[in-house]
Amino acid sequence: MKSPRIVLITGATGGIGGALAEAFLQASSTGGELERGLAAVLVRRPRPFDEHDRPFSVYHGQGRMESVAAYASRLDDRRAVELARRLRHLGTGRHGERAGDLVLLARDGSEPEDRYYFADGFEATHGSASMDDSRIVLALSHPDLPSSHLASMLKRAVGTTAYQHEVAGLVEYLATQVSGR
User: Do the Cβ atoms of 55 and 47 come closer than 8 Å?
Assistant: First the structure.
């Protein structure tokens, strides 16, 4: 079974309220190949390459928008795991422009028939905002250390939640703790 995914389009909106964002919203609500396929159309104003990028907003058509945090607050937590935080990480910072200016968030219902897939067959079967696609198992083991000691080291390193972009630092920290260097 495939999972819905996020599609990134670079420089597509030409600014907030752009014709392309409006067209995707219309295609999703009025029929065609995207009928009821999109959960949200996210947009932002493009910035020059050397400036920090703006966060995404949820586009509701005719220039109306709301923050991703406000939109996500109305969603089931299993369907949009830390959506605002994750999109902020995707689209801002040093390389935020690489995320594009328009993001299509596919509908991700709790039942397979309520989901929309951009791919045919089993091409690209990951990438939604749901918990099923968002959680990564991190298993720690050491031949000489009890699991309680490893859990304590993990909690000191990242707190109660580790994020994918923190894994390299976490591994380095754990290696220095175990080796005593």
Answer: no
pLDDT tens per residue across span 97-155: 777 788 888 877 666 666 666 666 555 555 567 776 677 777 888 888 899 988 888 88
Print burial letters for 77-102: b (CB count within 10 Å at least 16), e (below 16).
eebbbbbbebbbebbbeeebbebbbb
Question: Helix H segments across the chain?
Answer: 19-30, 68-72, 83-91, 131-134, 147-158, 167-179
Q: Which two tokens stand for residue 55?
A: 């966060």
Name the amino acid, one letter, at 120.
D
Q: What is the pLDDT of residues 34-83, one digit of tens each?
A: 777 888 899 987 766 666 778 889 999 888 899 999 998 888 766 677 88
Q: What is the pTM of this model?
A: 0.68
Report d(CA 126, CA 142) in Å as an integer. 31
Taking CA atoms, 19 is separated from 40, 51, 91, 166, in Å, by: 16, 24, 21, 37
Interatomic CA distance for residues 133 and 83, integer angstroms: 12
The CA-based angle 8-121-91, given to 5 degrees, is 15
Secondary structure (3-state) at 65: strand
* Spans of all domains in the chain: 6-134, 147-179
Residue with tokens 């299509």: 104
Tokens of residue 64, six digits: 């109306």
